[in-house]
Amino acid sequence: MLGYALEKKIIKSKVGQKVGLPCCHEIPSSETLHSYRVYWQKNVTGVVLAYAEGKSLSDHVPFLPRYKNRTEMDPRNLTLWISPVEILDNASYQCVVQHLKRLQNPSLLCDEHVTLFVTADFSEPNITAEVSTNSCESTEMVVRCSSHGGFPKPKISGALNNVSVVWNVSWVSESLSLYNVTAEVRLNVTKDVEFTCSIEYDGFAKSTTLLLTDTTFCIVPTVPPSYNVITASSIIIIIFLLAVILAAKYVLRHVCSCCSKPQDSVEESVRECIELPVSSQVTSETSFV
Question: Is pTM, for the whole model, over 0.90?
Fold first, then answer.
């Protein structure tokens, strides 16, 4: 993939791509590179490539070593090609073109600058959520978002159900000119919500969304019965037991009194126990008549 021009004299490219920096002069078809002297310089002083009379001046001019085997120049439009592009290629470059009509006094045809701006894509934001405190009312979570390996320095933002949140902490570290970014926020979650983390850099943006689940959990403690309830229940049970015992004793005493009489008396007593109410009723009716 080729780098592309954002506007005149400014070229944008991404790490790993091939980018072409345009020169300020193009050799006409009637001539060749042998009639020119061309210098490609970085930040004015460092030489990237140089040609005179169609030959490289690498044996005569100290080239910047980091561009060795990564650059070439088009012999017609003098475009400087760099591949693969690296972060350290961010710089201002200068194309100087001279015509060699007379070697002793070459004429300057152009001397212009072009800026190369290199970017590197950040990784997709990674969101993690850790429950720190759980209660009946809410779940407290520590939410972290991170992304790495990008350039230039990014901006990281967070949103809870599309409402912006303020990070408790955020930090950016640099490794080999690439940036790593991490941010952290503490949230009280009372229901399931969506958390979105976004990384913005040089007009680009990447975002990731994670569903935060409410994990509130309540255990209602068992309340032991009060002392008064226990006392009252015990009294009722005791009274009930006493009543049962007294009733049992009464029945046993009545039965035993019947059992202690002679056989004839027992039969008569039993008969009396059974027939007495009926006899009484008949007697009453007879008396009434």
Answer: no
